[in-house]
Amino acid sequence: MKTLYLMRHGQTQYNVEGRIQGWCDSPLTEEGRDRASQVKAYLRDKGLRDWAYLASSDLKRAQDTLSLAQEPRGDFHQLSGLREACFGQYEKQSRDNLPREDFNRQIKAAGGETIPEVQERLIRTCSYIMDQIEDGEKAFAVAHGRCIRLFADYWQAKEGRPKVGEIANCSLLVFNYDGQAFTLEEILVP
Length: 190
Fold this sequence. Notes:
By secondary structure, this protein is of the alpha/beta class. It has helices at about 15, 30-45, 60-70, 105-110, 115-130, 145-160, and strands at about 1-10, 55, 75-80, 140-145, 170-175, 180-190. InterPro entries: His_Pase_superF_clade-1 (IPR013078), His_PPase_superfam (IPR029033), PG/BPGM_mutase_AS (IPR001345), PGM_Phosphatase (IPR050275). One of its GO terms (cellular component) is cytoplasm.
């Protein structure tokens, strides 16, 4: 069995302002930086340090979070497949502006990604990460709230389990991977 620790990035300025980020970037707030640093201590206290693979989205907020949450050890992999869902023309706007009905059609028309597109991208990327490590090893990756939730909900539905709901900044979702499917084992909120 292989294990993936999938972390949401730290709080950003757009999170505070209630704005949609998607593929645009917003800097981490001081609280976001502090919480990411606390994750490093939490992982160290739990003996979670020997990662076979470290990755983040190629967006700066995820890269900065990974740099703060992990012991320095050189380069990590920046994977565009771990990016947040693209919201097209809705990016930088208030979350209140997102379509409430017929979401997939409206978001696609605005140049964004549908829910199945985001799920397929994350499944492909996380499977790739797991293919890079051996049985018994662990990988650590930093991504984004909506894409992590959609990824988790996909696997939860496969097992007849409830959706995970909102994911707090700097939360860690722990998945086991058997070579075919991911199983959500726990959600850690350091």
